[in-house]
Amino acid sequence: MAVSDAHAEERVGIDELLERVRSGLDRITPRAAHEAYEAGDALLVDTRYAALRDRDGLIPGALVVERNELEWRLDPRGSHRAPEASSHDLRVVVLCNEGYASSLAVESLRRLGLHRATDLIGGFQAWKAEGLPVLPPVTSG
To answer: Which pLDDT belongs to residue 140?
Structure first.
């Protein structure tokens, strides 16, 4: 028996999915994100995994939430929410390493009602390249 192609028209590749998701976002540059954070108008959320944070450092003041916990930690109605996740009106700027996974993460946050959620164009690497504040990696020894 052949596998049904009833949903074949719904299938998209990752590049097309990313393009579709981004078409509905007002993505933000590193400098604009820094200014919004400094003005108290944005919560920066770093979803990079530990090895990247350990290698490259942290953005001062960013809330670190691994991607697999993001929705639980940022849902204002969730029982596991972070204290910073106080409202659906919160402006959340999600960042990953290079700005790809963060776009997909924001789409999920928007489905939870966080209508001002967006992501950082170019991710942490673009932030760092702009010369914006970065805490150096923690070294052991």
So the answer is: 60
The CA angle 36-37-39, to the nearest 5 degrees, is 65
pLDDT tens readout for residues 62-93: 999 999 999 999 999 999 999 999 999 999 99
Q: Reduced to 3 DSSP states, what percent helix, strand and coil does the chain have, rounded to the nearest 5? A: 40, 10, 50
- What are the beta bridge partners of residue 105? none
What the block records as the tokens of 71 is 């929705």
Residue 44 has pLDDT above 80, yes or no: yes
CB 61 within 8 A of CB 44: yes
Q: What is the DSSP letter of 83?
A: T
Please give the order of strands across the beta sheet that includes 92-95: 63-64, 43-46, 92-95, 118-119
Paired tokens of 2:
């052949």
Angle (CA) 139 47 26, round 5°? 135
Contact between 117 and 63 under an 8 Å Cβ cutoff? The reply is no
Q: Which of 8, 89, 96, 104 is nearest to 42 (CA)?
A: 89
pTM for this prediction: 0.89
